[in-house]
């Protein structure tokens, strides 16, 4: 199959990163003033960090969880939810939204065919029994697991550095038959997500990147659009719906 933006795409995979939520007031990671500029990810987003100072890690995620409670989806999130509905109504093919983000703004916007490869900030996991539950409360070591009753075993249900991202088989299966791969608001810094564009190209897909500025794998994309997500994503989605 020739790689061309002209083939009306059937199977689409969209990968989003922190940049799509930036205009909803949630911090990115590597932009100036980003989260990792203020906090050391190796101390706060690794199993080793959690083992050596659980209270510091639980406080870090509790603060991000509190910050998320008031956040709302922006025009870019809403445009992707609208594109998914149009795609499914037209019976065009498969639609999968893979997000690296741990916020719930895609859900709030109405996205349904969605998976969080790095977990979810509003979910908590028990390290004793593995129970995962929706949780908007601050995380502390004093809390007990609602399932097994263990105390001091709760952690955020997010994927830390060195941990296996979630639903990788489902993602790689989708990338094997993708016609159109779109990365939105991600710097292409974190693996294995940064390598998805390579899998998509190997499947013969047309690849598009929509971010504020080029990132670490931008050269691998067939097509790029620079700008704030709330401006470039709705325009891009509207053009795609019209194809
Ligand atoms: C793993 C959850 C084994 C926690 C996060 C090669 C292969 C495999 C692994 C590695 C490898 N090399 C190195 C590794 C290890 C590591 C890694 O990638 N390290 C990096 C730092 C080099 N990877 C891992 O440990 C992963 N696990 O590898 O397991 C394995 C191997 C193979 C296959 C399976 C398993 C686990 C990584 C997950 C870590 N957890 N988050 C938390 O959030 O606290 S990662 C964290 O950074 C975020 O979740 C986010 O996903 C990620 C990437 O950040 P971005 O989303 O891209 O955000 P960033 O700030 O970087 O960029 C913002 C972008 O937005 C920019 O492009 C900017 O221009 C743009 N932007 C800004 N404003 C706007 C905008 N765009 C549009 N509009 C705007 N307004």
Report on the architecture of this protein.
This protein has 243 residues and is of the alpha/beta class. It has 2 domains: 1-26 and 73-118 and 165-243, TPP-binding domain (Rossmann fold, 3-Layer(aba) Sandwich), CATH 3.40.50.1220; 34-70 and 121-158, SIR2/SIRT2 'Small Domain'. 33% of the residues lie in helices and 18% in strands. The chain is built from 9 helices and 9 strands. It has helices at residues 35-38, 41-44, 47-52, 54-69, 75-89, 105-109, 168-176, 196-202, 229-242, and strands at 12-16, 95-99, 114-116, 119-126, 132-134, 154-158, 180-184, 206-211, 223-226. The strands form 2 sheets. A 6-stranded parallel beta sheet has the order 3-2-1-7-8-9, with helices on both faces. The chain has a 3-stranded antiparallel beta sheet with strand order 5-4-6, covered by helices on one side. Helix 5 (75-89) runs parallel beside helix 9. It starts with 11 loop residues before the first strand and ends with a helix. The model has no long low-confidence stretch (mean pLDDT 95). Ligand BV8 is lined by residues 17-19, 22-23, 28-31, 34, 45, 100, 102, 118, 158-165, 168, 185-187, 189-192, 211-213, 215, 228-229.
